[in-house]
Design brief:
The complex is a heterotrimer of chains A (546), B (98) and C (214). Chain A has 546 residues and is mostly helical. Chain A has one domain: Cytochrome c oxidase-like, subunit I domain (Cytochrome C Oxidase, Chain A). Helix content of chain A is 66%, strand content 1%. Chain A is built from 15 helices and three strands. Chain A has a three-stranded antiparallel beta sheet, with no helix packed on it. Helix content of chain B is 74%, strand content 0%. Chain B has one domain. The N and C termini of chain B lie far apart (67 Å). With 214 residues, chain C is an all-alpha fold. Chain C has one domain: Four Helix Bundle (Hemerythrin (Met), subunit A), CATH 1.20.120. Helix content of chain C is 76%, strand content 2%. In chain C, strands 1-2 form a two-stranded antiparallel sheet. In chain C, strand 1 and strand 2 form a beta hairpin. Classes of the chains: A mainly alpha (546), B mainly alpha (98), C mainly alpha (214). Chains in contact: A-B, A-C, B-C. Chains B and C meet through helix 2, helix 3 and helix 4 of B and helix 1, helix 3 and helix 6 of C.
């Protein structure tokens, strides 16, 4: 570079590299990276638990693990995966990194709150993992009363406190995202010019804000009941154990939408870019996100159909469950129409996104089977339920998370991952996933209960298939760990917009400078102004690119 | 100072007095034979007091409607929690046991 | 003091102040659900055990609860007048009103502590020391469980508020707040008034019960 060339600012990665500059950073991009490291660590913990479970279930007699250990492992798997991996995954990593960039802001509204959220998250996560290892919890991630409050011999209070603290981390992040989206959009960035990823993160944040406090109170009550012997959920002291389930699921059903809505946002971004097409029905997609977020609060009783709620109540919740499927289906239709007759580029992100659409749809349909009272009576608490939610959470959310990671990898790190390995890992994940979880639908239908450490011997073949699939899935998860890390040092350097995409995040350098933009962009275009005929596009600042 | 007139003391003090009057009303009402209306009176007064504090002290009026939305959202969502649970409690025979 | 600069992501101080206030309103929405979940639990149990809750509620100390509500309402007034003083550049009034707010907060805690002592003396403490002479005791114990949990969590929130107000008073005394920059006062003021509102609902749950001749 000649002495008279413009001195560009250092990227957020290279700008100042002491440990203190990272641990005390206010830069949302650095915080996103720190979250990424944290959740990867917890993903491993949850994954190890799953590995042990699937190894144990290779044989019907349950010879590998002690029964109590088995109970502690599925509890650990659930708690760690739900609260310390899935819920923060896309929002705290990709959301943190991309939200200000996508709206044209120079940081989030409350940068110190963002950092505080990361510290809360790690504190709660380490607390949870410590107690899950040392003595453990055996109630399942759902902490049902009266077992959790009166009879369990594990560290229920510690686990409840850990999740309680994690709730504050969630609320802090969500508050930041919501306020940022309202207040810090660049000039010209109206609501209906926002990328769908921003809409998805916003809708997710609304759910986080309104649902998590109820979980916090519920956990506080079971901790107090266990500690002090009060009878809020104890039938012998006038309490109702079902009240716990009402309050717990009031949060935990919307929680599954917390886990899937960001994935839908990622998928929308990837599909439009690699089909070189604006998404079909953009406004419908926005409204669908908000509708899912709201109606998702009305369906929680479908987790309680066999718990003893009244028939009228069950019918109301079943009806609501059917209604909430509609906006999700609309999204799937719109993605499909976007892809129809498009010239699709099958890069790794697109493979993950396509996998999402198929697996999410199948998972969603099986949710309707479970939402139907008559079939749920047979399938509740069987592996059918386990398969259903893994199709959404793993087939859906984790696929989209990996897809998003690959899609924005060049923006985040300034490097390209090796494309061949990316595609291979995506396909391997799809194969491994289906082999793991399709047999579990059959197992559930055949009556294998969940959370049991043994099973009937005639079900062994399906269990072996499932465990075999899990081993393939494990490889598919480990591969990106290796080649993404490899790319950090030896990957091809990326320019600003390697995918020729339209969002504001692609207007700045890869990786971006500390405060994102040299000048605040002026937005004149909606998102996804791709021309399907020749691959040209108009980025959101109004500039045409051939 | 003219700025003092731009922000008069009056509305705050009046609101304070009204809040105390409502407190008195709540106490007096507690001792009246109202039967099933007690709950409505008590919670109605609480809601009124909250509205006064929101509007006068917390300045929830005019300008950005965004704050209204968030103020209201919390209460609406509580309504969802309560009403959908209440369907079960109203129609389930197993509780209470005594 | 040097003029305060807005954060790099803000165009000006006013945008930053409005954003901070919006943030507090969003937080208040979460608190509505946090306390509301507890109150919803209370309402469901009260609807299930109406007679026993009425009897149990009769023993709550309405005089102390009312004094506390009056204290809190007055503290909301002093807080809002403190913010007004900042807008009018009246530093002395600002500091005094903030200290008055904190003092009233302390007074509330003091009265509450005294009330807890009186509750304990009349054997109204669930699990630890609970005596109920009017029949099936479990629902009454639930009423008092709710009482202690709700007022306890409220007291924790109030204590946090007191600390925040004292910090603001210290900053105000050093001249940190001007008519152009006093967003922290607005934000803490919102929090303080909200804690006041929670007490309105807790009062309605706890004190008016069972006084119209059982």
């Amino acid at each position: 570079m000649s002495a008279t060339a413009l001195e560009l600012p250092a990227s957020y990665l290279t700008e100042e590299n002491t440990i203190g500059s990272w641990l005390l950073t206010r830069d949302h991009k650095r915080i996103a990276m720190m979250f990424f490291c944290s959740i990867t660590f917890f993903f491993f913990i949850g994954g190890i638990a799953a590995t042990l479970i699937r190894l144990h279930l290779l044989s019907p007699a349950g010879a590998f693990l002690q029964p109590e250990t088995y109970n502690r492992l599925f509890t650990m798997h659930g708690i760690v995966m739900v609260w310390f991996f899935l819920i923060p995954s896309i929002p705290a990593t990709l959301g943190n990194f991309l939200l200000p960039l996508m709206i044209g802001a120079r940081d989030l509204a409350f940068p110190r709150l963002n950092l505080f959220s990361w510290y809360l998250f790690n504190t709660s996560g380490l607390l949870a993992v410590y107690f899950l290892f040392v003595g453990g919890v055996d109630t399942g991630w759902t902490f049902y009363t009266p077992y959790s409050t009166l009879f369990s011999n594990g560290h229920v209070i510690a686990a409840a406190v850990a999740v309680f603290i994690n709730g504050f981390s969630t609320i802090a992040t969500a508050l930041n995202f919501v306020v940022t989206t309202h207040k810090l959009r660049a000039p010209g960035m109206t609501w209906f010019r926002l990328p769908l990823f921003v809409w998805a993160i916003y809708a997710t944040s609304i759910i986080m804000l309104l649902a998590t406090p109820v979980l916090a109170m519920t956990l506080a009550l079971i901790a107090l009941e266990r500690l002090m012997g009060i009878g809020v959920f104890d039938p012998q002291l006038g309490g109702d154990p079902l009240l716990f389930q009402h309050m717990f699921w009031f949060y935990s059903h919307p929680a599954v939408y917390i886990m899937v809505l960001p994935a839908m946002g990622v998928v929308s971004e990837i599909i439009t870019c690699f089909a070189r097409r604006p998404v079909f029905g953009y406004r419908g997609m926005c409204y669908a996100l908000i509708t899912i977020a709201v109606i998702g609060f009305f369906v929680w009783g479908h987790h309680m159909f066999t718990s003893g709620i009244s028939l009228l109540s069950a019918v109301v919740f079943s009806m609501m469950t059917f209604i909430v499927a509609v906006p999700s289906a609309i999204k799937v239709f719109n993605w499909t129409v976007t892809l129809h007759n498009a010239r699709i580029q099958f890069d790794a992100p697109m493979l993950y996104a396509l996998g999402f659409i198929g697996l999410f749809t199948l998972g969603g349909l099986t949710g309707l089977v479970l939402g139907t009272l008559s079939s749920d009576v047979h399938l509740q608490d069987t592996y059918f339920v386990v398969a259903h939610f893994h199709f959404i959470m793993v087939g859906g959310t984790v696929s989209a998370y990996f897809g998003g990671l690959h899609y924005w990898w060049s923006k985040i790190t300034g490097r390209h991952y090796p494309e061949i390995w990316g595609r291979f890992a995506a396909i391997l994940m799809f194969v491994g996933f289906n082999l793991t979880f399709l047999p579990q639908f059959i197992l559930g239908y055949l009556g294998m209960p969940r959370r049991y450490y043994t099973y009937s011997t005639d079900l062994q073949t399906w269990n072996v298939l499932s465990s075999a699939g899990a081993s393939i899935l494990a490889v598919a998860y480990l591969l990106p760990l290796f080649y993404l890390t490899w790319s950090l040092i030896w990957g091809r350097k990326a320019d600003d917009n390697p995918w020729h995409a339209t969002g504001l995040e692609w207007l700045t350098a890869s990786p971006p400078p500390a405060h994102n933009f040299l000048r605040t962009p002026r937005v004149t275009e909606g998102p996804y102004r791709y021309d399907p005929r020749d691959g040209s596009y108009v980025s959101q600042d109004g500039v045409f690119h051939a | 100072m003219s700025s003092r007139r731009r922000e008069p003391l009056g509305p705050y003090v009046i609101a304070w007095i009204v809040l105390l009057v409502l407190l008195g009303l709540s106490i007096v009402g507690a001792y009246q034979p109202l039967g099933a209306w007690h709950a409505l009176l008590s919670f109605g007064i609480a809601a009124t007091q909250t509205a006064i504090v929101f509007i006068v002290f917390m300045k929830l009026r005019g300008r950005p409607h965004l704050k209204w939305l968030f103020a209201a959202a919390g209460f609406f969502w509580l309504l969802f929690l309560f009403s959908l649970s209440a369907i079960d409690y109203a129609t389930r025979n197993g509780f209470p046991t005594h | 003091m040097p003029p305060v600069e807005p954060g790099v992501q803000y165009a000006d101080l006013e945008q930053q102040s409005e954003t901070a206030q919006l943030g507090m309103w969003v937080f208040i929405a979460t608190e509505v659900l946090f306390f509301g979940a507890l109150i919803a639990t209370y309402v469901l149990y009260r609807a299930s055990y109406p007679a026993q809750f009425r009897i149990a509620g009769h023993d709550s100390l309405i005089l102390l609860g009312s004094i506390n509500q009056a204290i809190l309402v007055t503290s909301s007034l002093t807080m809002v007048l403190a913010i007004r003083a900042a807008r009018l550049a009246d530093r002395r009034a600002l500091v005094r009103l903030l200290l008055a707010t904190a003092a009233l907060g302390f007074a509330f805690i003091g009265v509450k502590g005294y009330e807890y002592a009186r509750d304990a003396a009349s054997h109204s403490v669930p699990v630890i020391d609970f005596v109920f002479k009017h029949g099936y005791r479990a629902p009454a114990e639930l009423f008092w469980t709710f009482y202690f949990i709700a007022t306890g969590i409220h007291a924790v929130h109030l204590s946090i508020g007191i600390v925040l107000v004292l910090i603001l008073a210290a900053r105000a005394a050093r001249g940190a707040f001007t008519p152009l920059y006093h967003a922290p006062l607005e934000v803490v003021g919102l929090y303080w008034s909200f804690v006041d509102c929670v007490w309105f609902f807790l009062f309605a749950c706890i004190y008016p019960l069972g006084r119209a001749g059982i």
